[in-house]
Write a structure and sequence with these properties.
The structure holds two protein chains of two kinds. Chain A is mostly helical. Chain A has helices at about 10-15, 15-35, 40-55, 75-100, 105-125, 130-145, 155-185, 190-195, 205-220, 230-235, 240-245, 250-265, 275-295, 300-315, 325-350, 365-370, 370-385, 390-405, 410-435, 450-465, 470-485, and strands at about 65, 70, 350, 445. Chain A is globular, with a radius of gyration of 21 Å. Chain B has two domains: about 1-270, no CATH class; about 275-475, no CATH class. Chain B contains 19 helices and four strands. In chain B, the strands form two sheets. In chain B, strands 1-2 form a two-stranded antiparallel sheet. The N and C termini of chain B lie far apart (about 45 Å). Mean pLDDT of chain B is about 85; it is low at about 495-523. The chains are: A mainly alpha, B mainly alpha.
Chain lengths: ~475, ~525
């Protein structure tokens, strides 16, 4: 078989960012091996490689590549930026975290980069198999990253849990894909879209089973209730910067993949109950996430449950796929990356035995000991609870506005009511920061220049998007328009 | 200056930013910096009054640039007869608060001043915004500094009070947010896909009765919690008692008015039909609040709690005036918002003064201190009389206008409400009697230093306006008349079947203005 027709012109430009990250990751491993004395430079080099990757976006060719399995467009560019942003923030936080914990190894950053490549494949894949390939690449990197502190029992527990559960989830997705293939005779999303657009198509129960399997698998990756129970344990045990990254970037990649799939199914959705299933997942996530988070004293577990609720909000926007829905999810993921990684960043600076839980008591009175770090955490909390003038407000407003305009006012109402409950636990963090006297033997905050820089990026980004979101909106809605205009 | 409103709005926030870099030890410099810029803000806001043209009903000194064009949200500011005096009240009270707390804030003074200045920007912004989303942003922004002010600098039970305050208010305002989104979506659909959140643009949105009622409930709930209206008032006594003096003054003086202001700006003109339909319920709640607040205030052993419950009672008058929907009652309401800010602000300030010296607010601990603190006693009596509504002082004018205006449309409820005036006289006079007169029962009260220069200086402007409004209210009423007329006209236009009654009234007595005709929307 002649492969040349599969390689279109400019194919190398299409995967330029991925190539930069792949080669960069290999370089870091070699650098680590051949220059062990310059190990402290691996973090900064990793940041430079991520920036190179972002810069390479300028030369990216737009279009469909590799025989219609890989689509590069405006929306993938927006999501690429989200992945790179999450990568940079995580690298900056890890640079200080790993040094404090006495972990060395360039492979940490390499795994982060290859995981990012996996997410980029998920975002660009126009074929279910490419999406699954990206997902697997991402998952393997995550397994290793989670267990990176191999002397800590919690870290091993996190890795093993994610591995076992993740393997099941991938199995579900594969099985669902196989069933869809049986019906539509293709795994290509464009071909499936044509099949679904056929007015004579009948929705068999088998297809519904396939959809449910797909949602179970992707729901696991998103930590949507009821597929969420892994999240608190995994986040708690993972190295904190990795937990922050895991709570943000893979969710964004899964969401954009789901957007493509839902869009392809668009014509048949009105005659199925599929979106009702998705709506229930969203409602359950918002209720369970927000109510269980109230009971958490461990900061990482609290953020895990808050993340479950936040994904619930994003899922509301997906109930009807239109330009606003895509743009609002794109913007929400960017803001979510800034605020969640900012919050995990402050937690990662708590200098204590990482095997012990990082609780609210550790940050008591921080506002008067370390004003900047406390301010960063407070800003992230206010942004997560959706108060103006933060990016969290603008993005949440966009989500609810999209839902109302698509006629999902009832679900938006549930979202609003549950987010009232969420204010309580976000606010409790601020209460510990500023209104609680610090106890004896207080936990030290150990933030180096890189981690502090990451917090500064978070704060500036949150306020910038909250106060002047217009440029981002322009880019996101134009990209969304292109995606759906096919 | 074409950007006058923007300058007044942002100056406090801009002044707060460099404060973060001040060294912690430079106590006097920090306080001086904050006071100086709040005074400059006040002086600049006087230019708003000077530039304000009487006889124009709509917004003046308008500034408008696109903010989020995709959603039709604009950064648009303006001032009209309804918001003018509330803006002035905010810019007046902030320097008063900073001056009054000059010596009383020992813990983290830098952060306290920053919080106060951020608070000022947020409150001015809420009154000046002529875009619903801009209003909402500022409305919510007020919560963050106030949460910190209560929670960090408050009394023993401050954390509970701060969280309760925050959760109560945000519960209401998030529901209103959904209402705003829905209203905006409807407007965009009706105007052919051109979204807008400008206050005036949304006036014309056609609503079905059910939608109108639901949106009315969403908006009303948010503002009723803020006012607070009985039975949603339970956060208020906690917040007031625990807040530091400065926080109480701003909370009672300005923040509660965001609720009453919201009724006038949004609820009445957006949902005229629902407002008319549900006015009896709201008026009933307001009157219950008046009487209930007064009765509870009567039995309080704690001075600050007494003043807090008197706020529930006084704000009840404002809501009564608003939903009675006559020219006189609404003007009285707006004036009463300002009055309450002045007189309750002064009362909280004075309670703070004595608490600073004796560290107790219990009435039982005092008695006869007029002998040891004569100047303080004089100030307290003036503030008390203003709150009671003595003719010649501000409180009387507001309450009289509200009651005479409301009597036209709701005579029964107004009669009940009038007992609130009597009850106010009872509990406040009794307070003064127990604290200031009689023999000195407590030996510790023999040597309390009298009121200090900074406290006196802080009170002086309040007293000036208390007397000014009382003697010549027309200075203030004149500027609000056209806006209120327009508001009522808007409501009667919406409901052509409603009879617009023109009644002549002569309220010439006791120095009140005469106005030949007053429009009243009657049922």
């Amino acid at each position: 078989m002649n492969l040349t027709p599969l390689l279109e012109a400019h194919w190398i430009n299409a995967i330029l960012p991925e190539l930069v990250l792949c080669i960069g990751g290999m370089f870091l491993i070699l650098f680590d091996a051949f220059a062990p004395k310059a190990r402290s430079l691996t973090g900064p080099i990793a940041v430079v490689i991520f920036i190179l990757c972002a810069w390479s976006q300028r030369f990216v060719a737009v279009g469909t590549f590799f025989g219609g399995t890989y689509e590069v467009g405006g929306i993938t560019r927006v999501f690429d930026i989200t992945f790179v942003l999450a990568g940079i923030l995580c690298t900056l936080l890890s640079a200080d975290y790993l040094e404090r914990e006495g972990i060395t190894g360039g492979e940490f950053y390499a795994l982060l980069m290859w995981g990012t490549v996996g997410m980029m494949m998920m975002a660009k894949g126009l074929d279910l198999l490419i999406i699954i390939l990206g997902l697997e690449l991402l998952s393997i990197c995550i397994f290793v990253l989670l267990g990176f502190q191999r002397r800590l029992p919690v870290s091993n527990e996190a890795s093993l849990k994610y591995f076992l559960m993740g393997a099941f989830a991938t199995g579900f997705i594969l099985y669902g894909t196989a069933l869809f293939y049986g019906a539509t005779e293709s795994t290509n999303i464009n071909v499936m879209a044509r099949w679904f657009a056929n007015p004579d198509v009948t929705i068999t129960p088998l297809l519904t089973v396939a959809f449910v399997l797909l949602m179970a698998g992707f729901g696991f990756k998103l930590a949507l209730a009821p597929f969420h129970p892994w999240a608190p344990d995994v986040y708690q045990g993972a190295p904190t910067p990795v937990a922050g990254w895991l709570s943000v970037a893979p969710k964004a990649a899964t969401l954009i993949a789901l957007i493509r799939i839902f869009h392809a199914m668009g014509p048949v959705l009105p005659q199925t109950k599929w979106m009702t299933i998705v709506a229930w997942l969203a409602v359950l996530s918002m209720i369970i996430g927000n109510s269980v988070a109230i009971a958490q004293r461990d900061l990482k577990r609290m953020l895990a449950y808050s993340g479950i609720a936040q994904v619930g909000y994003m899922t509301i926007a997906m109930l009807t796929i239109n330009e606003d829905a895509v743009a609002s999810i794109a913007i929400y993921t960017i803001v979510y990356a800034l605020m969640n990684l900012g919050a995990f960043g402050v937690i990662s600076m708590l200098a204590k035995n990482q095997n012990d839980p990082q609780t609210l008591d550790d940050i008591a009175g921080l506002g008067w000991r370390r004003p900047f770090h406390a301010l960063a955490l407070a800003v992230c909390m206010f942004s997560l609870s959706g108060l103006p003038p933060t990016g969290g407000f603008v993005s949440k407003f966009y989500i609810f506005r999209t839902a109302v305009q698509s006629g999902h006012t009832g679900i938006a109402l549930i979202g609003i009511i549950t987010s009232i409950a969420s204010v309580y636990y976000y606010l409790r963090v601020v209460y510990y920061l500023y209104m609680k006297e610090s106890a004896e033997g207080q936990t030290r905050i150990d933030g180096g220049i890189f981690a502090t820089g990451a917090l500064a990026i978070s704060i500036i980004g949150i306020f910038l998007i909250g106060i002047w979101p217009t440029p981002l909106f322009h880019a996101a809605s134009y990209a969304a328009h292109l995606l759906l205009a096919r | 200056m074409t950007n006058l409103l923007s300058i007044v709005l942002w100056l406090p926030l801009l002044a707060a930013l460099p404060l973060a870099l001040f060294p912690r030890r430079a106590d006097a410099a920090i306080k001086g910096w904050g006071l100086f810029f709040s005074l400059v803000t006040f002086l600049l806001s006087l230019k708003i009054v000077l530039g304000f043209q009487e006889g124009i009903a709509g917004f003046q000194l308008i500034e408008s640039v696109p903010w989020i064009p995709q959603w039709g949200i604009r950064y648009s500011l303006g001032v009209d007869g309804i918001s003018l005096w509330l803006v002035m009240l905010t810019t007046l009270l902030t320097p008063v608060v900073l001056l009054a707390s000059w010596n009383s804030i020992h813990k983290h003074p830098k952060e306290y001043i920053i919080a106060m200045l951020v608070m000022e920007t947020a409150m001015i912004g809420a009154f000046l915004a002529t875009d619903v989303m801009l209003f909402y942003s500022f409305f919510e922004l007020t919560l963050i500094p106030m949460y910190l002010i209560i929670g960090v600098w408050g009394g023993a039970n401050r954390v509970y009070a701060a969280i309760k305050f925050f959760i109560f208010t945000i519960a209401g305002s998030l529901l209103m947010l959904l209402g705003i989104i829905y209203l905006g979506a409807l407007h965009a659909r009706q105007s052919g896909g051109v979204p807008s959140f400008a206050v005036q643009d949304l006036y014309g949105t056609a609503l079905s009765p059910t939608v109108s009622t639901l949106l009315f409930i969403a908006f009303t709930l948010a503002f009723a919690i803020k006012v607070p209206l009985f039975p949603l008032h339970t956060w208020l006594p906690d917040a007031h008692v625990e807040a530091p003096t400065g926080g109480s003054i701003l909370l009672a003086g300005v923040m509660l008015k965001l609720g009453t202001y919201g009724f006038l700006r949004f609820v009445l003109p957006y949902f005229p039909k629902a407002s008319l339909d549900y006015a009896p319920i709201l008026i009933a709640l307001a009157v219950i609040g008046i009487v209930y607040g007064a009765l509870v205030a009567w039995v309080q052993p704690d001075m600050k709690k007494l003043v807090a419950y008197s706020s529930v009672s006084h704000l009840g008058f404002c809501v009564l005036g608003i939903f009675a929907m006559t020219q006189a009652s609404i003007e009285g309401s707006i004036l009463q918002m300002v009055n309450h800010g002045l007189s309750t602000g002064a009362l909280f300030l004075l309670v703070g003064v004595i608490y600073e010296r004796r560290h107790t607010r219990l009435l039982a601990d005092y008695g006869g201190i007029a002998k040891t603190m004569p100047l303080y006693a004089v100030c307290f009596v003036i503030a008390m009389l203003s709150s009671v509504g003595l003719p010649g002082l501000n409180g009387f004018v507001g309450e009289f206008l509200i009651l005479s205006g409301s009597f036209r449309t709701y005579p029964g409820w107004t009669t009940v409400a009038a007992t609130g005036v009597i009850l106010a006289a009872i509990y406040l006079l009794w307070l003064v009697q127990r604290v200031f007169f009689g023999p000195i029962t407590n030996e510790e009260n023999r040597h309390i230093p009298d009121i200090a220069w900074n406290e006196l200086l802080a009170l002086a402007p309040l007293f000036v306006f208390i007397v000014w409004i009382g003697v010549h209210p027309n200075t203030f009423l004149r500027k609000m008349t056209p806006s209120v007329e327009q508001l009522l006209a808007q409501m009667s236009n919406e409901k052509p079947q409603e009879k617009v009654m023109t009644a002549s009234s002569s309220t010439k007595d006791s120095g009140l203005r005469t106005q030949d005709s007053r429009k009243a929307v009657s049922r």
